[in-house]
Fold this sequence. Notes:
It comes from Roseateles toxinivorans. The two termini are 26 Å apart. The longest helix is centred in the first third of the chain and has 29 residues, at 79-107. By secondary structure, the protein is mainly alpha-helical. The protein is built from 13 helices and two strands, in the order H-H-H-H-H-H-E-E-H-H-H-H-H-H-H. A hairpin with a 4-residue loop joins strand 1 (183-184) and strand 2 (189-190). The chain has one domain (10-348). It has a two-stranded antiparallel sheet.
Amino acid sequence: xxxxxxxxxxxxxxxxxxxxxxxxxxxxxxxxxxxxxxxxxxxxxxxxxxxxxxxxxxxxxxxxxxxxxxxxxxxxxxxxxxxxxxxxxxxxxxxxxxxxxxxxxxxxxxxxxxxxxxxxxxxxxxxxxxxxxxxxxxxxxxxxxxxxxxxxxxxxxxxxxxxxxxxxxxxxxxxxxxxxxxxxxxxxxxxxxxxxxxxxxxxxxxxxxxxxxxxxxxxxxxxxxxxxxxxxxxxxxxxxxxxxxxxxxxxxxxxxxxxxxxxxxxxxxxxxxxxxxxxxxxxxxxxxxxxxxxxxxxxxxxxxxxxxxxxxxxxxxxxxxxxxxxxxxxxxxxxxxxxxxxxxxxxxxxxxxxx
Length: 355
């Protein structure tokens, strides 16, 4: 293997895949009125298991960049061509997010087109974190991460209240996004993947970048200590900055990042070192394609009016016999199983759809 080769760790693919599978699970209940509490996001402040999913994915984006680009930087490859590749991929991811939102706006008769979203946030964080890796040394990366965490927290605390209507995030989204935000009432807007909260999401990706460097160098003790420090510091900040995914507060970055570091260390030990099965790997090697495909499937079913009759036909018996929550969960699990079988088939045939 050359010094510029990209190491591929099954544990990273598995965690990425489990995050995508969890996204499909929580985004596709059969009945939104009867969802088990752990499978819902916190209404505002707080952190449920579901709130961990997107931060884990963005954390793995940073880890993957460290594993793929880190060796090339150390090998002395010029940064400009690498930066061009990062930006081109980030743009493709961003544009794919726009296309998916356009499809939803068209088929589901949504009143307004949403500009930002999950894939758009991934694309932005991918581009910025890749640039930091290529042009900043390790110490500068740490300093930048700490500075952004502090700045984001100061902006939220100094920019207004931490409720949705009075937050700085809402005012910026209203001024910049307006009717193109996720929520728009004709006067004010708010987007959970909006402009201000993207600063916190970038911190999560940068934390993943540093964790990926520790993983690449086999420093599992440092990685575990980083995870513990994140949990302690994140919890310590909650009296001033509560956990909040929609604002992506600094405490939320540290808390979710702490769990992600510990999970990554454990997965690497069990899968890469001890040979445990890499559950979720098939999702992980076709992550963006699986997410986009599942999105289009849901939009088509909803837009063509097939979702409700399909749910009643396939899961009505469970709803009557066991209850509406069980039927909703069964639909979500079946949806994940269908896409799990799809990506498993693609993996067995060596088909990997890269965006």
